[in-house]
Specification:
The chain has about 180 residues and is mostly beta strands. It contains no helices and 14 strands.
Amino acid sequence: TRSNSGVKTAGTYAKVLVPTGLTSGNYTIAYVPGNFQIVAADTLVVNVAPTSATYGATPVYAISNASYLDSGTNLIATISNVNITGSAVTLDDGIGTTASFTLVPLSPTYSTSSRLAVGTYQIGSTGLNISGANFSNLTLAGTLQVTAKGLTPSATGVSKTYNGNTAVSGATLNVAGVL
């Protein structure tokens, strides 16, 4: 349930979604209240599919859906003409309004090699350009999960005749995949 169910004003409301009802004799269930967002009419809402990328790789984004509430008709207008190249998105509602923007992680953390660090990031946008009057703003929903990159160690020159000690001379350790 939503603890502020009487509120109808656009905005983001923290911890107003209140889960209840599940019980179990085998588990202790701890509920955590969730946030709720009311999006204003004529705001383009774009849902980005959950995205995962390995550390150092470029994320491959996909748009799950895009729509807006048309304040003139009070109907949801779904946008099917969506193009994405890398992180650049262009949309056309087919009735006079287009938008373009670039997907970016919000509040990114970078490694010492200037790559996006392992972790989970909310998706945001830069360079928003809207042409037309059917929608006037953008709300994005989606996450990017950056996972650890595997490294492959290998050794060369490893040969030893038993002589009572652990020293090996001439051995070289190589690590493939280091960025």
